[in-house]
Amino acid sequence: MSQEKRKFYEMDREERLAFLKESAGLTDEEAASFGQPLAFDSANRMVENAVGIMSIPLGIATNFVINGVERLVPMAIEEPSVIAAASKAAKIAKAKGGFVAETDEPLMIGQVQVVSLANIGAAKRKVLARKKEILAIANSKSRSVSAAGLQAREVKDSSKNKMGRMLVVELVIDAKDAMGANAVNTMCEAIAPRVAEITGGEVVLKILSNYATKRMVRCKAVFDRDELGGKDIVERILYAYALAHSDVYRAVTHNKGVMNGVDAVALATGQDFRAIEAGAHAWAARDGTYRSLTRWWRTKNGDLAGEIELPLAVGVVGGVANVHPTAKVALKVLSASNNAKELAMAIAAAGLAQNLAAMRALASEGIQKGHMRLHARNIAVMAGAKGADVDRVAKKIADEGQVNVEKAREVLASLRKGS
């Protein structure tokens, strides 16, 4: 990737697009697609009762080095400070080699629920004895993905309804570079009649699981102590992590910060971020207590090390990623158009970076200082500022610590009077 003469955040929009064209090999048409609303006809095909399009800002996080490769990371998010904070954290990590990430094979689980069984143990044995036959039925429904395994387990209803015991037959499916939801669901529906026949039970649900524990991604990085602000800041960050690990009230907000990074990249690249959220939060509570999705510790030489591990089912084949023009270009900018694993690792890195940035801010000057300085621009616009006046008003109200519409209007009136 060529080195830009100016920092990305210092460029105007045209300069940024020109940089993306050069670094990511975008065509004029692809570059122009940034900022172009989704055509209504396309939106109308995606959802029912469509009336319009809801736009969300799309930015680029810089400085990310993942497994030795520098990447530009697209992020779609409306919250101020997230992209800047992630870029800053990535820059600190870059000094120590950047992020090191790995992913499991893209295995998804599809579930077939069987009820009204007289002998669940016997039904389970019958299903597993016909594993080859059941997998063949599943694989007859797809050319792109493949059912690689079959498992079955007994589940007891723990709700107050007391629906009793049931058998859950699970397909283990290699989704390759797809997220895999449609293929998994199709395979589950295909095997359901045969499973019902083999077990003598009634099939109810036939659906994938978004708890993709066979599709984990792990990412870690080391952050220089001095770049963070010294050993005292490292100590305070570790206290912040201690609370997130040990107290659910803090853990929820801590993980919300993680998901600021995860969701923003997922949304920009056309992923099902609701499924990602559900799986991540389930993983955070896997030991019975909801905890931090990240781990942090001090290295032998006093630097800060962190890692994240979470189930992450993403795809670059099929779904919104292939039909939404902006998502397609975002994948190209990330250099992940043909590789779901690369996308997953970038998403994990963004989550880890954003978590570090949030804890660093909380452990030092507090989260509001930087957040409100960026939010001041929104307040300036609300007060009626336009063009260059937006930044002038924003700077003034942020410097004076009065980030509110009334003060912004006062500053704007003064600027206009002076001009």
UniProtKB/TrEMBL annotation:
Keyword Oxidoreductase among UniProt keywords: yes
Q: What is this protein called?
A: 3-hydroxy-3-methylglutaryl coenzyme A reductase
Name the keywords, alphabetized.
Oxidoreductase
* InterPro entries (alphabetical): HMG_CoA_Rdtase, HMG_CoA_Rdtase_bac-typ, HMG_CoA_Rdtase_cat_sf, HMG_CoA_Rdtase_CS, HMG_CoA_Rdtase_NAD(P)-bd_sf, HMG_CoA_Rdtase_sub-bd_dom_sf
Q: Which organism is it from?
A: Candidatus Nitrososphaera evergladensis SR1
Q: Which Gene3D superfamilies match?
A: 1.10.8.660, 3-hydroxy-3-methylglutaryl-coenzyme A Reductase, Chain A, domain 2
User: Does the keyword Oxidoreductase belong to this entry?
Assistant: yes
Q: Which GO terms describe its biological process?
A: coenzyme A metabolic process
Which SUPFAM superfamilies does the record match to this protein?
A: NAD-binding domain of HMG-CoA reductase, Substrate-binding domain of HMG-CoA reductase
